[in-house]
């Protein structure tokens, strides 16, 4: 009897807490789920602060920068396979073929992707995922969402996560132990590359949630529109783009959300960023391990 009462009391407290967190007096226009989003954002940020960040600091201290750069290049080269596939789906033939060539060159001449030979050969790197592909064909983004562990997203980008999972070559690595090891190394390495940038963001942003939200949404529009038009210059004010991804809406320059913490601002959307030491941080590398297991973490690209 006491156990039943305790369970009922715990459930009532949890529901009350969730209801209190899921509402704000004046939600920002374009962010109707702001109360709930802020609650999830705080959870992700706390997890990053007390779990992922200390591990990343130890990794950065123990592993030399040239080795970390090679690890970054390796996972970035794998990600280019999925980027090329999405660009071909969007009928961006030149970009898609260019990324296929990047994979071939970096794999053959870059020792399996450990060295970014393609960039030195003047082949630019692109960013794409299935959420961007859907937006390219006119699917509206829907409300902004912050997903537990996965970070910033939208309804459209969340719907694209399943395709992102099956489209990522790392999803087919067997056995599962090797897959977990690859995801773990990639996660810690990427977080280590972002240590300086995240610290700067924490010190500079008055409201980190609003900054990351706006940067993420504008970055997504930039990827969909390709930066066409005079409005491609980023404008990080408090206004939010409309849900419709029309070409007349403002778009942002790439890399704007690089300052977000992986757990708190991970774009399940393939955004890329640059660390404080100039190292490019790949995205679309964190998906659930193949055939079951706990969800992985998408980091900004």
From TrEMBL:
Residues 1-24 form the signal peptide. PROSITE patterns: PROKAR_LIPOPROTEIN. GO terms for biological process: intermembrane phospholipid transfer. Pfam families: MlaA (PF04333). GO terms for cellular component: membrane. Belongs to the MlaA family. This is ABC transporter. It comes from Trinickia dabaoshanensis.
């Amino acid at each position: 009897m006491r156990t039943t009462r305790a369970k009922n009391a715990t459930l009532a407290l949890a529901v009350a807490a969730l209801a209190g967190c899921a509402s704000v007096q004046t939600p920002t226009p374009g962010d109707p789920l702001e109360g709930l989003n802020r609650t999830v954002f705080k959870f992700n940020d706390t997890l990053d602060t007390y779990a992922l960040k200390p591990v990343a600091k130890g990794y950065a201290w123990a592993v030399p920068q040239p080795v970390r750069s090679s690890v970054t290049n390796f996972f970035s080269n794998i990600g280019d396979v999925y980027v090329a596939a999405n660009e071909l789906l969007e009928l961006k033939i030149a970009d898609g073929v260019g990324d296929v060539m990047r994979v071939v060159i970096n794999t053959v001449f870059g020792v399996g992707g450990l060295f970014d030979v393609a960039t030195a050969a003047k082949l630019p790197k692109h960013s794409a995922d299935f959420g961007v592909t859907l937006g390219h064909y006119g699917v509206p983004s829907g409300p902004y969402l912050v997903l537990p562990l996965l970070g910033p997203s939208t309804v459209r980008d969340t719907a694209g996560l399943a395709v992102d999972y099956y489209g990522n070559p790392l999803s087919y690595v067997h056995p599962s132990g090797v897959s977990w090891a690859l995801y773990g190394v990639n996660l810690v390495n990427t977080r280590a590359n972002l240590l300086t940038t995240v610290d700067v963001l924490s010190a500079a942003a008055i409201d980190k949630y609003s900054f990351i939200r706006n940067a993420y949404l504008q970055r997504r529009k930039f990827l969909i529109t390709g930066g066409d038009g005079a409005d491609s210059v980023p404008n990080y004010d408090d206004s939010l783009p409309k849900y419709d991804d029309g070409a007349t809406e403002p778009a942002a320059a790439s890399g704007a959300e690089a300052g977000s913490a992986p757990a708190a601002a991970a774009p399940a959307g393939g955004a890329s960023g640059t660390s404080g030491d100039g190292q490019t941080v790949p995205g679309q590398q964190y998906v659930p391990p193949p055939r079951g297991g706990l969800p992985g973490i998408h980091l900004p690209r």
